Amino acid sequence: MKAVSIKEPGGPEVLEWTDVEDPAPAAGEVVVDVVASALNRADVMQRWGLYPVPPGTSPYPGLEVSGRISALGEGVTRWQVGDEVCALLTGGGYAQKVAVPAGQLLPVPEGISLVDAAGLPEAVATVWSNIVMTAGLKKGETFLIHGGAGGVGTMAIQIAKALGARVVTTVGGPGKAARARELGADVTIDYRAQDFTEHGPYDVVLDVVGGSYLERNVRSLAPDGRLVVIGLQDGLEANLNLAELVFKRASVHGTTLRTRSKEQKAEIVAEVRDQVWPMIESGAVQLVVDRRLPMSQAAEAHRLMEEGGHIGKILLVNE
User: By CB atoms within 10 Å of each CB, which of 51, 147, 289, 309 scores lowest?
Assistant: First the structure.
């Protein structure tokens, strides 16, 4: 098969569409013939050498795919060869085939094409596991999501709104602000000209930025507020006045989906299927796709992501 390999850490030009060995399913796994994959910020970090691949994981980037099952490993009974699925991965999605633990498979939701379904698993699992399973977002609470125009952001706005929260988001520019409002955001904040702390307090904050945002995030939390940090685009270190945490009884959670165990991922995927798939099939939550490019053009897709002009998911499609 062919896959996108990273020949060395660096810019998009280090991505190569090359011949590699086909995967074989271990016990409890299936092989999916990949129809499409989707970009995530973690793929960019991996390309730069800033996100080490977990032991035993495919070296190729790609944390989600859609496609058809072509082989079953020992002990897999729920799925059949030929089933159309989408899947949450630990890696290896930028390829023509990938081996996946059966517990990380999802059916393609009604109303979503097989190609576009590739953009669902990582964003939905990230949002649900963090704002509900970790932060416990409730109806009537105020929720802040940074980067509301990205793949995670566009999904977080809609899921939080479906849960009955008041939704605030930071975005870069009027075009992205307009799209965020269309998706349900109650308040949009242009981070280049406005200070998000002026629109708090927030019960839950989902932060994809990290770095210097930490202090302001905590300062803007309501009493008993919860901050979940899932990204480090602004850096790995920050200062924090611990009194802000103590006197507000606030909590800060740092999480990553990729390094969770297969059992934890299976639990998240099961909740997503039960709780979020009905929202998608009813139209309450929509998948936002910015564009679709051939898998062999992964380098161009990475350039587009790093430029930051996209809204929603960028998909890579096997031709």
Answer: 309
pTM of the model as a whole:
0.93
H or E segment and range at residue 180:
helix 174-182
Would you give the DSSP letter of residue 23?
A: P
Q: What is the DSSP letter of 254?
A: E
Q: List for the chain the helix, strand, coil content (%; round to 5).
A: 35, 30, 40
CA 152 from chain center: how many Å?
5
As a whole number of angstroms, the distance between CA 64 and CA 3 comes to 14
Whether cis (ω within 30° of 0) applies to the bond prior to 201 is yes
Give the HSE-up count for residue 52: Cα atoms under 13 Å, Cβ half-sphere. Answer: 3
Contact indicator for 137, 131 with CB cutoff of 8 Å: yes
Token duo for residue 67 = 């496609």
Q: How far is C-alpha 200 from the chain's CA centre?
A: 25
Question: Residue 290 has which token pair?
Answer: 């910015």
Per-residue pLDDT tens, the chain, 319 aa: give them.
999 999 999 999 999 999 999 999 999 999 999 999 999 999 999 999 988 888 889 999 999 999 999 999 999 999 999 999 999 999 999 999 999 999 999 999 999 999 999 999 999 999 999 999 999 999 999 999 999 999 999 999 999 999 999 999 999 999 999 999 999 999 999 998 899 999 989 999 999 888 788 889 999 999 999 999 998 665 677 777 787 888 899 999 998 898 899 999 999 999 999 999 999 999 999 999 999 999 999 999 999 999 988 999 999 999 8
Separation between Cα atoms, residue 152 and residue 169, nearest integer Å: 12
Handedness of CA 229, 247, 161, 184 (dihedral sign): negative
